[in-house]
Every structure is written in C-alpha cells, then in structure tokens.
C-alpha cells in the first residue's frame, strides 16, 4: 500500500505503524555520606571547660526545573530554526518519524508534528493506529527521503517539496511472521507549514505532476 492509497482506506485498513520517540530522562544520583572506617575514626574527648557552639545549618531553596516542550525536545536542532533550511529539515524529520511510527506501530511518535487540520497527516496517524490494533508493524523504513526543498518562504506562506521513494517492506505480526508487503513507488508531496516557537505541518498533499 502506498501513501497515495489513503483514499481506499474505507475498503481496507491502512497498514501503517508508528514508533514512540521516547525522551529518556537521566536521573542523577547523589551519593550518601560515607561512614568512617572504625580503625580510622577519631575518638571524641570530653572536657569540662569545653564549650559547644551551635552552628546554624544554611537553608537552600530548590530551584524549579525548567519545563521543556516534549515535542521540541524530540526535534533535531537543524529542524528547529525558523529558516528556509529549518523548514526543509523539519519536513524530512516528519517522514523519518513516520518511518519510526511504521516500524513500531505507535502513533504517539507523530503527536505534535502536524495540526488536526492536516487531513492526510491525521489519516496517516489513524493508519498507524489501525496497524497497532491489528497487532502488526512494518519491518523496516517505508520511505526514503530523496530530497526536501523549501519552495516558498514568505511571512504568510511556507511550503516544502518532498521527494520520496517508497520501498517494499514486509509487514509482520507480533510473532515476526510476514502477513503482507508494501508496494514500491516514487512519490512527491508538498508540506504547508507554520511556525509558532516550532514548526508544524498544516497541510500535506500530493505534488502536481
């Protein structure tokens, strides 16, 4: 099944899958105060003339941890700037994420990369969910991005032309057995994009021949 086959989804579930780009948070560990060895411990002596001075323990206020947008966190640095190059890099990243999604049948990886007004984007994410529901996944990357080129970049219109090679990829079940195979195809799309602190795809359509 190709990207172009989305129009037939009512007759046959789209065999797309997705992978969650997990954000790994490394938890720092603080070592406890070591216990002195008994053989090296210094004995405490008591003197009647000794005076004890209480030392106030300084109080520290914990600094709040900055909140990081989880979508921005998974976007590569090259795909973040509001530039011609950044727009093209984000479009490439979207299809890379789609490949990840196909391989692991988890639509969450696509969350935040497109608006709900992008009909094809929503359809692709739903296709991923369909594959997950069937207990299947793609056994490899479906799409190879040949190039992504920003064709329009004005304050009111940002568009990127993407050329893809769709590959023949086995579709496997939870046991790893092949249940189907995708079709090979050469495809071109135009991604209309918007920028509000980060890029987002608002429309994805086939490029005119």
Element layout with pairings:
Blueprint: H1 70-74, H2 84-104, H3 119-134, E1 136-138, E2 143-153, E3 158-166, E4 170-173, E5 178-181, E6 185-195, E7 199-206
Antiparallel strand pairs: 1-4, 2-3, 3-6, 4-5, 6-7
Helix pairs in contact: 2-3
Describe the structure.
- The protein is an alpha+beta fold and about 210 residues long.
- It has a domain at about 70-209: Roll (Nuclear Transport Factor 2, Chain: A).
- The protein is built from 3 helices and 7 strands; from the N terminus they run H-H-H-E-E-E-E-E-E-E.
- The chain has helices spanning about 70-75, 85-105, 120-135; strands at about 135-140, 145-155, 160-165, 170-175, 180, 185-195, 200-205.
- The strands form 2 sheets. Strands 2-3-6-7 form a 4-stranded antiparallel β-sheet.
- A hairpin with a 3-residue loop joins strand 6 and strand 7 (about 200-205).
- Helix 2 packs parallel to helix 3 (about 120-135).
- The chain is globular, with a radius of gyration of 27 Å.
- About 25% of the residues are buried.
- The model is unreliable at about 5-55 (pLDDT under 50).
Looking at this protein, list some descriptive labels.
209 residues; three-stranded antiparallel β-sheet; Nuclear Transport Factor 2, Chain: A; 3 helices; four-stranded antiparallel β-sheet; alpha+beta; single chain
Sheet/helix structural class = alpha+beta
Assign an overall shape.
globular
What oligomeric state best describes the polypeptide chains here? single chain
* CATH domain class of the domain at 69-209: Alpha Beta
Largest sheet: 4 strands, antiparallel
The fraction of residues in strands falls at 15-25%
CATH fold-level assignment of the domain at 69-209: Nuclear Transport Factor 2, Chain: A
Total number of beta strands: 7
Mean pLDDT: 78
Low-pLDDT windows of residues: 6-53
**Helix amount, in percent?**
10-25%
Q: Strand order, main sheet: write it out.
A: 2-3-6-7
The whole-angstrom Rg is 27 Å
CATH architect. name of the domain at 69-209: Roll
Gap between N and C termini, in Å?
Answer: 20 Å
């Amino acid at each position: 099944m190709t990207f172009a086959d989305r129009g037939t989804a009512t007759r046959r579930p789209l065999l797309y899958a997705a992978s969650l780009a997990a954000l790994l948070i490394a938890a720092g560990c603080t070592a406890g105060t070591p216990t002195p060895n008994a053989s090296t411990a210094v004995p405490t002596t008591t003197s009647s003339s000794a005076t004890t001075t209480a030392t106030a323990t300084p109080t520290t206020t914990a600094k709040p941890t900055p909140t990081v947008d989880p979508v921005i966190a998974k976007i590569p640095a090259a795909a973040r700037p509001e530039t011609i190059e950044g727009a093209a890099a984000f479009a490439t990243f979207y299809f890379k994420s789609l490949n990840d999604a196909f391989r692991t049948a988890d639509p969450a990886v696509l969350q935040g990369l497109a608006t709900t007004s992008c009909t094809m984007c929503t359809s692709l994410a739903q296709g991923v969910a369909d594959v997950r529901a069937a207990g299947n996944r793609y056994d490899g990357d479906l799409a190879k991005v040949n190039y992504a080129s920003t064709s329009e970049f004005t304050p009111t219109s940002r568009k990127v032309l993407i050329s893809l090679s769709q590959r023949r990829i086995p579709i496997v079940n939870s046991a790893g057995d092949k249940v189907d195979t995708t079709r090979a195809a050469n495809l071109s799309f135009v991604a209309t994009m918007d920028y509000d602190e980060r890029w987002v795809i608002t429309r994805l359509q086939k490029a005119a021949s």
